[in-house]
Amino acid sequence: MTRGVAAALLLVASPAVAQLAVRGETVYTMAGPPVRDGVVLVRDGRIEKVGTGIAVPSGWRELRARVVTPGLVDAHTVVGLAGYLNQPHDQDQLEPSAPVQPELRAIDAYNPEERLVAWVRGFGVTTIHSGHGPGAVVSGETLIAKTRGGTVEEAVIVPAAMVAATLGAGAKAEEGKSPGTRAKAVALLRAELVKAREHLAKKESAEEGKEPERSLRLEALGAVLRGERPLLVTVNRANDIVTSLRVAEEFGLRLVLDGAAEAYLVTDRIKAAGVPVIVHPTMARDFGERENLSRETLGVLRRAGIPVALQSGFESYVPKTRVVLFEAAAAATYGLPFEDALAAVTIDAARVLGIDGRVGSLAPGKDGDLALYDGDPFDWRSHCVATVIEGEVVSEGNY
Amino acid sequence: MRKIPILVPAVALAGSLALAQEAPLALVGARVVPIAGPEIERGVLVVHRGKVVAVGAEGAVEIPGGAARREVAGKVLMPGLVDTHSHVGSVEGADASAPIQPEVRALDSIDVLDPRIQKARAGGITTVNVMPGSGHLVSGQTVYLKLRPGRTIEDLLVPHPDTGLLGGLKMANGTNSRKKPPFPGTRAKSAALVREQYVKAQEYRRKLAGEDEKKRPARDLGLDALVEALDGRRMVHHHTHRHDDVLTVLRLRKEFGFRVVLHHVSEAWKVAGEIAAAGVPCSLILVDSPGGKLEAKDLLWRSAPALEEAGALVGFHTDDPITDSRVFLRAAGLAVRAGMSREKALAGLTQAGATMLDLGDRVGSLAPGKDADFVLLSGDPLDYRTRVLETWVEGEKVFDLSRETDRLYAVGGYGAGRGQPSVPHACLDHEDAEEGR
Asked: Tell me, what CATH number does A29's domain have?
């Protein structure tokens, strides 16, 4: 694996992007039925053609694999902020000094060269929605990045994707600090949203030169109130899920539910609200607020017509991150059809993140992001043999 | 030395065995992965009174008259899985008062009705070494359990046939046991404290063997356990991650002669030759990514093939809740991904673990005379689509995916976090108990 990482770093450093043709015995485009003996042409970083019997122009680099899929999309992670050593110096996913800090920007913390970014890239993950994690009422912004290394500017495709919030027991501060209860956490959130709404109103109605004093915090929440970005609420218990829906309705927010262990109890409410769910990892530990999680939830919500995606989530110990490829495989273990599970880490994830115009499926005009496997991608024994981001081979080996 | 009384479990066990399996049961047509020999494409497994009576190819095995015959074609049978390192049952061990507490017994803390124990059954686990944590140099005595359908810890114990001992001794080095005094602050201090205590145990043992009864030392429960380790009767199960910490364990083992299984062994791939040369078995954990703490920064799956190649005995463990007991089969899949052979990877889930617990004569493979501990799988054990359909311990079905209560623990859902009396339960499983096996 070390070899693969080294090769990937070299390639990232190289500015020249070769034109690339990828051949797969089976190509899951996620934009139609799987293509047998398919070819994907990637020109200047974008997909030019997908299909069978496509001639590969001479001089193009050619890769072959048993199975080719779109580069995987991890709909929620903290990779790049929560470092693999798990020491105070590399943990940037949560600032505990105050319960509401939407002004914390993920781009100021994301480390594209973090080892876990390379780790997930090795398994075919090309796009991650990462950033501030759960654990505070509002912990900060998230971003969407490609898993290439380099600088944050080179990696990021959406610098401010969502504002991350937590409700339920996860929102409670340490003992002696506020919020100490669920209701207090919601009260704090509502109070801040009210302030932000008033701030917005004043700003919009103010005469020139008489605008209210700037507030980074209220501006960040204002973007949520204006619908520019969703509020991502990490929540597990059914009553807390319903509370999230209530707050979202009150303020007219775009809501994305995250985790949602007990979502299967309130499927109708979620469906009626038109809210997407980024479901907890299939193999997530079923403790505390997640004690009632079901490994069939992804399928249950999907069948109900709720937009869903899968995530690697946040891990506070060993392993420091999960890999969405394995979580999707586990969803398939528990009965989700193969292509539905694959969709949860490709096109469906891209849709929930609002980036399906660019990634998540193999179609002309989309980014040339691909994952190549030497067998069924979900088989524990298969390997990801290459990962491609915008036509660049960013990882090669036997992951 | 000083066997722990085991009368109660013996009685309970006899009762439950009498209840089950008056007639032999023949499972016919499955692919059988006996571990003890080559895989059998269409096989037969005959069990009776809690033991395996016969295993072999269909047609080559005589099915006893009066046996209940069950067709299981298209499915796979393999031995019940052996988890060499788990924390199911809300186990506790030593407290914060001292770094070395060998007198503390895991068995005094375990709740056998804890849902994680039923989840372990749902994962196909039939034998498990339940351990105290790794925050101490010695955190207590571990306990080996067979996941029989019991209500009390005694129902699940597996006393060693020769020593009567009920488990091993949990030790740890590296970072987890480094804390404020009286805990060690450095690696060398950790080793010094352990060394000092084992020397004390050697002295204690010498004095106990003295002829003058009056000069014998007062009984010390902690030293008793260390003497059992020194005598090779109590296996040391040693948490260790970094390559140099691994070598420290090997050094202490050489010095004091205890028998040891290395656990986790994240950096085994760096010192596989040394481990193999010492003849010390390794129980590995394979997790989704390296890191999470400093000493796991190079935890890579390649340890499995590296140790196999070097000739060391390799098993796996869940360390539940670090990995979930219900996905234990995946450990073997990931080991194969990293280059381990299928044969050794499957043995790592079963026979190798049994050997590490000194239970290899009873569990870990399907052969005549072995305990009737087995799992019925929907497909190949390394296939991600495979489900554990049934788990059997000593001829009794302790998990059945088709039963609603069991399914809850297997899949999760509302109430899966709460404990319930383990199956079979007269109220829950009346029909099942009647259908015969």
From this structure: 2.30.40.10
